[in-house]
Amino acid sequence: MPIALQEAGINTWFAIRLGSTTFDIFDTFADEGARQTHLSGKIAEALISLGR
Description:
By secondary structure, the protein is α+β, with helices and mostly antiparallel strands. It has one domain (2-50): 2-Layer Sandwich (Alpha-Beta Plaits). The protein has three helices and two strands. The chain has helices spanning 2-6, 32-39, 42-50, and strands at 10-17, 23-29. The protein has a two-stranded antiparallel ribbon with strand order 1-2. A hairpin with a 5-residue loop joins strand 1 (10-17) and strand 2. The longest helix has 9 residues, at 42-50. It is globular, with a radius of gyration of 11 Å.
């Protein structure tokens, strides 16, 4: 969440816990440019690194 709060263009950010190790995240963005920036930013990098 701290990274999401620093990222420009995110209108809303929700995370819910579905199980002991499973989470779901739902974001909304100001526009398509903000969404694309998000998809290639620090949050995406962090989530991808968790899957490695």
